[in-house]
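Q: Hi! Curious about what Cytidylate kinase looks like structurally. Here's the sequence.
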Amino acid sequence: MIAIRGAITVDANTREAILQETEALLKEILERNSLEREEIVGINFTATRDLTAAYPAVAARSLGLVDCSLMCFQEMHVENSLPMCIRAMVLVERQTGQKSAAHVYMKEARRLRPDLASGEAGAGRPLAVAIDGPAGAGKSTVAKGVAKRLGIIYVDTGAMYRALALHCMEQGVDLEDGEALAKALDRSGIRLEHGSDGQRVFLGERDVTEEIRREDVGNNASRVSVHPDVREKMVEMQQRIAGSQAVVMDGRDIGTHVLPDATLKVYLTASSLVRAQRRHLELQAKGMERRLDLLVEEIEERDRRDMEREHAPLRQAEDAVLLDASDLDAEQVVERVLSLLERVEA
Ligand SMILES: Nc1ncnc2c1ncn2[C@@H]1O[C@H](COP(=O)(O)OP(=O)(O)O)[C@@H](O)[C@H]1O
Ligand SMILES: Nc1ccn([C@H]2C[C@H](O)[C@@H](COP(=O)(O)OP(=O)(O)O)O2)c(=O)n1
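A: Let's find out. The predicted structure is below.
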């Protein structure tokens, strides 16, 4: 069982305002924690004594939360405390541990927990830059550049899914069987090492940093990454890495799931043609010719799979900055990210 906290303020003591803001708060809690409605056991709401026009629980029922138990209380009144505030504690049947809970504080209630409110550089929390986006947008190039300029480590989460794909391909594990893949992940010994030459990826004692870059491994990484059991374990490993040190992390779900409280979130994209052209050049440099139109098709197929999967699909986090790099070179994108970071840290 985990308990997820949230709070939001209301502009007026009216039924409409209370229900509207409660609904916004609950939607954000559901979204940020990827909650299925059936997982919720109960929700306790409190409202400050100045809110009397409606029960917040009504908003939960209208969101389809019909099976869980709901209670509304009046918040204990403390002198000079935040007025017009609705608080919620959502009890969830999950074995993922309390640390996996993403608490949500919105509007004026962000002041209650500046260490948790998304978008604010968390007090005492290591710096975290999250870069998400589709294949070939330039995430790893830019993340590496930013990490180098900041003197912190770069964590390529795609490499972890690639390493799992390689391990399973070699061990003959069925790539459609989520349970078998999760077991294989436990046995795989996937490990990241961060040295002066960047990230190196290991399966046990074997360094697979170069091998996982193969095209077939990349496509199979996209296939293994659709399974929730696999993602849950990967996210835990990634959160552990970012919990103790400053990171630039790139992937598909960093801003939305892995680091919901990242200091800065960037959603980096470029048109599928530009991304295919980059891939074309990359392959040419390795002496391999591929038809551009086929590369466009492959990239669009991968986008579809990453964006349409049920669990933690690729999408822009609400508080992420959209950066379209179609007409920017890599150095320009690094500069943009650094200046965005300066702004959020100011
Ligand atoms: N802004 C950019 N302009 C031109 N080429 C870029 C840019 N960013 C990355 N590249 C090149 O595009 C290719 C794919 O970039 P990469 O960082 O591997 O993308 P991703 O990690 O998003 O899949 C690489 O060959 C890289 O050198
Ligand atoms: N955080 C992540 C990182 C990668 N994945 C999946 C989706 C991608 O298709 C594969 C491979 O990721 P990777 O970033 O190495 O792929 P590209 O370099 O962008 O081609 O893994 C993911 O689901 N979540």
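A: A fun detail: The CA atoms of residues 37 and 245 lie 34 Å apart.
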